[in-house]
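Researcher: Next entry in the queue.
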Amino acid sequence: MEQPLPVLVALILVLVCEGHGWTAPDFCHQQQCPQYKLVATNQDFEERLYVATDWITTKIESAMDGDVMAASSRLKDYCQRQKDAGYEIPVDSWPALITITEGGDGPDLSMSWFLPPGTTKPDNTDPSVQLQSRPEATVYVRVFDGAPSIRSGQDNMEMLREALNKAGKSFDPHTYTGAGYDPYLSLHHHNEIWIYAA
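Model: Structure for this entry, 198 residues:
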């Protein structure tokens, strides 16, 4: 005979204990994603305070689609090797990030996947993948839809920078991040541009 009440109680306890009182937004698709506090919002952007987070990160050689796909494959292969070694690194957490730092020698691009809290960090023996810890930070966010691309990210970054200048906000003028919360072939996309406060 089934006992649904104990199962329901256990499920509620797991959800409460894992979330620590924070409920992930709908665009995380019931997956773990970085916790933040919404500080302010207006028609052009949100101001969020993110908690410290951990990521796995790899370099993207160029903005060409093939190089972006190669970076994604490197992270996926890394996660599989870690799983085979007995570590659990989820590949279904969101968002996936592409960070672009503009410099004199051209842009520096990287891809990062979120490591949810409680993920055991493995000993990293892969020089092409770095374990990265990001401190608590204020981030300005512009939300947009449509298929993600480097070009749409650049267009939305320019709109966000303009809105931040109009609002008198201080921000890092050299680095921005595109955050994607959906598989590339999804019919609907929730995309974000992040610019860190200075």
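Model: The helical segments are 4-19, 65-84, 150-167.
Researcher: Noted, moving on.
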